[in-house]
Amino acid sequence: MTRPTTRGIDFEEWGAINQREALRIARSPLQPMPYRVMFAAMSRANRVGHAEFAKGELADLLKVTRGDSPSMLTVPSRQQVWGAIRRAKNLELVEETSRLRCLILSPSLWTRGTGSGRCAEHRVGRWV
Questions:
Q1: What backbone phi and psi angles, to 5 degrees, belong to 99?
Q2: Rg (CA), the chain
Q3: Where on the tree of life does the source sit, at the highest rank (predicted)?
Q4: Which pLDDT score is estimated for 128?
Q5: Three-state DSSP class for 107?
Q6: Of 93, 95, 88, which Cα lies nearest the Cα of 124?
Q7: 31 φ, ψ (degrees, to nearest 5)
Q8: The dihedral formed by the CA atoms of 109, 16, 31 and 64, expressed in degrees to the nearest 10
């Protein structure tokens, strides 16, 4: 029996995710920060695995609990967000070229048949 494929994708090796659910997980302060970074990327990734964010948007998404009040969330500092991205890179959850404004998922992890194939931050796709 032939394995189902489309454009070279072997669907017996692939699954799907709900991007809204990935966003919910990314926002959860109960999850470890590097994994929240990966889920943030999955929630927004386009056809080529780039997840673009407006200035400060990723930090806002990755709010953390304050030690004195676990129910109170605060926006992490730029350094904290960079640290989380660095740890996600070290764990190979996002690509080495990921930045504050664009997280990149590995092509071996992410493919999508629809959506943009561009990234303004990394100048991917056709930019005139």
A1: -140, 180
A2: 16
A3: Bacteria
A4: 33
A5: coil
A6: 95
A7: -90, 150
A8: 90
Measure the CA–CA gap between 89 and 73, rounded to whole angstroms: 25
pTM: 0.80
* Cβ–Cβ under 8 Å, residues 74 and 10: no
Q: What is the dihedral of CA 108, 45, 99, 7, to 10 degrees?
A: 30
Is the distance from CB of 26 to CB of 51 less than 8 angstroms?
A: no
Please give the residue that has the higher pLDDT: either 116 or 92: 92
Cα gap 35→105, rounded to integer Å:
12
Beta-strand runs (E) in the chain: 5-6, 9-10, 50-52, 64-66, 69-74, 102-104
The average pLDDT across 66-94 equals 91
Structure tokens at 6: 């489309």
